[in-house]
């Protein structure tokens, strides 16, 4: 009896420490063994990135309340073919923007051995991208700015895919130009999306587009794993999404010089002569 008691006492601390069969279990070791070092990094990165995004994008008191999506808004979208097309189009812009923007930032570390310098340059190129958008939005319009940004970034990403590995400087320049283009879009898309919707529904539909767009930022950290199959898969995906969104931008009217719509009827005629601002 004394031997059994002493044996149970000696096994107690090991169990409390999380041991199995008297062998301590390390979660990091389990993840590395099952997923590999790269898979462990991607899993932890996904958890860290997605948790705050999901919590901020889906607050329970907003999503599950009766006032979260008013019936009048759903009815207005369903009855207006113009508004329905916009509600189906703007979230795709946002998904592409966040997917390419964060995807290029995350994949920058694999450009060459100087991953810290690459990441700094990828972040620094956003500054001229932001200011370029500010300078041209009121000169050439919203549609040309955003469409050019999407297509320019897409062309750079596709060109990067087929640039030889030994041309490291050229690859870096093309990569940075791709980030420059999508940075222009990120600055402009808030303004363009807001101007397409009437005042009554503007905040709700802008928030909806932005919320759906977080799908892109959640999936972007997973793209480096695809490089194990082919190194150019992430940039080809960025290019394909950019071309799709660039074409979809052309389906919406230009809002430069128009009155900000207050009613649904005013939003439906954006781009027509009656929607132009009186000078």
Could you list some keywords that capture this structure?
279 residues, 2 strands, mainly alpha, two-stranded antiparallel sheet
In words, what does this structure look like?
Residues 45-279 form the Major facilitator superfamily (MFS) profile domain. Pfam families: MFS_1 (PF07690). The chain has 279 residues and is mainly α. It is 74% helix and 1% strand. It contains 13 helices and 2 strands, in the order H-E-E-H-H-H-H-H-H-H-H-H-H-H-H. It has helices at 2-16, 27-57, 60-63, 71-79, 81-107, 115-124, 126-140, 142-161, 168-196, 199-219, 223-226, 233-249, 264-268; strands at 19-20, 23-24. A two-stranded antiparallel ribbon has the order 1-2. Mean pLDDT is 81; it is low at 4-21 and 57-68.
Q: What's this model, at a glance?
A:
With 279 residues, the chain is mainly α.
Q: Structural class, from secondary structure content?
A: mainly alpha
Question: What's the quaternary structure here?
Answer: single chain
Shape: globular
Largest sheet: 2 strands, antiparallel
Helix coverage percent of residues?
over 70%
How big a fraction of the residues is strand?
under 5%
Mean pLDDT metric: 81
Strand order of the largest sheet: 1-2
| pLDDT < 50 stretches | 4-21, 57-68
Terminal-residue CA separation: 99 Å
Number of strands: 2
Order of helices and strands: HEEHHHHHHHHHHHH
What is this structure's SSE topology?
Elements: H1 2-16, E1 19-20, E2 23-24, H2 27-57, H3 60-63, H4 71-79, H5 81-107, H6 115-124, H7 126-140, H8 142-161, H9 168-196, H10 199-219, H11 223-226, H12 233-249, H13 264-268
Antiparallel strand pairs: 1-2
Helix pairs in contact: 2-10, 4-5, 5-9, 5-10, 5-12, 7-8, 7-9, 8-9, 8-12, 9-10
């Amino acid at each position: 009896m004394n031997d059994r008691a002493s044996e149970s006492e000696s096994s107690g601390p090991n169990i409390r420490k999380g041991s199995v069969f008297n062998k301590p279990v390390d979660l990091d070791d389990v993840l590395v063994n099952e997923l590999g070092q790269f898979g462990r990094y991607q899993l932890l990165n996904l958890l860290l990135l997605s948790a705050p995004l999901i919590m901020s994008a889906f607050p329970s008191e907003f999503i599950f309340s009766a006032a979260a999506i008013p019936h009048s808004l759903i009815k207005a979208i369903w009855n207006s073919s113009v508004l329905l097309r916009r509600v189906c189009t703007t979230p795709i812009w946002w998904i592409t923007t966040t997917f390419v923007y964060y995807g290029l930032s995350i994949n920058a570390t694999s450009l060459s051995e100087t991953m810290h310098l690459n990441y700094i340059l990828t972040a620094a190129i956003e500054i001229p991208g932001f200011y370029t958008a500010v300078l041209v939005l009121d000169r050439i319009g919203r549609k040309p700015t955003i469409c050019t940004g999407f297509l320019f970034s897409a062309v750079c990403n596709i060109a990067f895919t087929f640039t030889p590995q030994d041309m490291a400087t050229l690859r870096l320049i093309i990569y940075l130009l791709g980030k420059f283009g999508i940075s222009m879009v990120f600055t402009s898309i808030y303004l363009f999306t807001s101007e397409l919707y009437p005042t009554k529904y503007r905040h709700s539909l802008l928030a909806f587009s932005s919320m759906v767009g977080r799908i892109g930022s959640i999936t972007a950290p997973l793209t480096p794993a695809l490089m194990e199959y082919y190194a150019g898969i992430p940039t080809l995906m960025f290019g394909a999404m950019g071309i799709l969104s660039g074409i979809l931008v052309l389906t919406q009217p230009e809002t430069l010089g128009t009155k900000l719509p207050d009613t649904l009827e005013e939003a439906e005629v954006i781009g027509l002569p009656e929607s132009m601002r009186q000078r």
